[in-house]
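Data deposition worksheet. Section B asks for the primary sequence of the deposited chain exactly as it was used as input, without tags or linkers unless they were present during the calculation. Section C holds the resulting structure in token form. Section D is free text for depositor observations; keep each observation to a single sentence. Incomplete worksheets are returned to the depositor.
Section A, Depositor: J.P.
Section B:
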Amino acid sequence: MATEVGPFGIDDHSSVYLAGRASALGVVDPAVVTAVFNSFAPRLVAERIPALWDLISPGQALRARENAVAAALERLLGAETVRSAELSEAAKLATAAAEAGALPGRPLYAANAALDLPERPHTALWHAATMLREHRGDGHVAVLGHFELTGVDSLVIDCASSHGMAKEIVMPMRGWTEAEWSAGRERLADRGLVDAEGRITPRGAALRDEVEAETTRLDRRPYDALGAAGVERLARYVHRLVGTAADAGVFPPPLRGFFAPAADVWNAL
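Section C:
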């Protein structure tokens, strides 16, 4: 999927994604990025890293990321919202949770935790959300490894479930070929996790549920630190923000349904 060429000469979606998310790690080999991202094909990463850093340094990418987030949130949410006392409070709650995470075994979380906290409340809220996302994501990768699910295997089983996105979206976005996807499906079929047509089996659904439950268990520390009342207050407010962003058209049509239901529920409360 092509994107507009920016000031650094980066002209494809995957490179923009890598520049934004991998920049916190600094200049590292493609194997490191592949390992911590987990679900991306090694080939897709190696075609862009480290050549990407000849166009933009990690420091430049981090600054561009923060500025883009600040502008996008103000456009989507409105100036009044991003300057509100309520958003400022949400940023403080989210930061308190994010800073309580566990560092060991969480490279992407640790890399973002080492960055300076943005001064603007709406970008501070986004930064805290990024830390929380990476904290859960790092734990998720560990759980997948425990259950011997490779990156592509985890995508295949998720797409086969009722919770996942369509293969037609996920496979090219993560850089996997049809042959690699089929090989992952065969491995899962050998374990009884999908059937011959690639449909998830009861055993596969149970394993997927167990993976999610274990990921949540390993991710409880930030929210325990915030406390039930703080989590409730933060969740209600952030879900309202998600609903506002969704109404503004931030999510492409194929992804709208993954975010709208939760936002609609919280907006009604």
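Section D:
The chain is about 70% helix and 0% strand.
The CA atoms of residues 95 and 128 lie 5 Å apart.
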